[in-house]
Every structure is written in C-alpha cells, then in structure tokens.
Description:
Helix content: 25-40%
Number of strands: 7
Strand content: 15-25%
Oligomer: single chain
Order of helices and strands: EHEHEHHEHEHHEHEHHH
Radius of gyration: 18 Å
Amino acid sequence: xxxxxxxxxSEFRPHKLLFLHRVITEPCPFLCSHGPQHLTNFDPxxxxxxxxxxGGSSPELLASAAATCHDRGYRxxxxxxxxxxxxxxxxxxxxxxxxxxxxxxxxxxKQLGNALPTSVPCTxxxxxxxxxxxxxxxLATFVRTVHEESxxxxxxxxxxxxxxxxxxxxxxxxxxxxxxxxxxxxxRLVSDFPQLWFTLNGGVKTLAEAQDHLRHGVHGVMxxxxxxxxxWPVLGGADHLIFGHPKSGRxxxxxxxxxxx
Length: 261
C-alpha cells in the first residue's frame, strides 16, 4: 500500500506491506501540523509489516530520524524521491526534485543505512524521471548512481511509472494523472538490474492488474488510492490472491462488527 496521510492506519494491516505516511526531517511546519506522534506511535508486535517513509535531503537529519524511529520499533525505511509538491521543492528540498541529484540521494541513503543495523532494509521511492523528456537512460543512471553511492545499501526501488512535472506547472493531483504511464520502463529495469528489486506503482486499481504486473517480472506492486476508495475488493482479497494466505471466510459485515468491538 502507498503512504497516504490519515489512511495508512492499523486497519489496513497486518499481512499487506503498508507504507506509513512520510515523516519530514526538514523544518516544514505546514507538513507537520499534527506533530510526529500520530505517525510514529504504533505497536510493532501487531504492525510489524510497516515501512516508515522519510522525506528530506539532509543526510544527517535522515540518519537521526531513522535511528529514532528504529528505536520505536520500525524495521524498514524508505526515502521519498517522488513527491511533486511545490512546497516540498522550494522549502524542504524533498521529493521528486531530488531525482536531479542522484549522488545526494545516494549519500542520504548511505548515512541513513549507517545509522541502522545492516539487516534493516532501506529503499527509495521515485518517479521514472522529472521534466518533459521521457528517458529510460536517465532513469537507469539514477538507479545505478543511487545504488553505488549508497554503498550498495539500496537494493530496492519503488517506481511510480510516471514523470513528475515540477515548478508548479502541474499540481500534485495532476501529476498523478496527466503524465503518461510507462510501465515498460519499470519492466526494463527488472531486466537490466537483476541484482536489484523493483516494485511498480502508478495507476493500479485492482488485484487483477497487480497480478498482471507481477507476471511481467516486477517484484512487487504498490496500490494507492484504490485501496481506500474501494477497500473490499482490493484489500479483502489481497491476503489470499497475492500473499497466498487461506481465505478467512469473513464477510464485510463480520469485519465491521469486529472493528466496532
């Protein structure tokens, strides 16, 4: 599941790998109005399959945030290099704008990884590129550079298969819909970087679509807004169809009654 504010909560767990909404390490009060506690407080005994997504560009702050959150029980961390927010670009220097500086991203991930045990996965979520030009070569260079500059600490990329159009030319919502999807770019990464893992994101609305992408060789599929807009067919069947768990036999009414209790 994609990191989404106010939706990445315990009801979506435990079998599905959930990304908790990002914690911003830079001084961005407009992004942290609720304080960090509602994002970082959780029960690791129940919510073990939770990834904490960080946003920022300071290697030192990212490392400090990761170490603090690891002490609170998180066992996987992700850096957001895909958010097209204009405020993020201009004030905090986080998100998709960082795709223009893969060496900095690699350094951030190296220091973040050094602050954690080597067994803790550290991943990057990105776009296929930024700007007007679609270039697989630039995407491949970004992946290669981040992997190498991180000291090979980053071995898993979650790729939103759209470009991000920055500098306020498109809103974040438009950036989720207008740039064309290029799933073939992600499939090609799988082929060209067999030592790395790639999760595909962008435009996936059903489990059938997720299964089709998995058949193309990607190692995972991230589903975003479809999971809360249409939760029963997406989340209700994921444990069985994607993860191979036995069917629970529960109805929507059963789940609602358990939730109320």
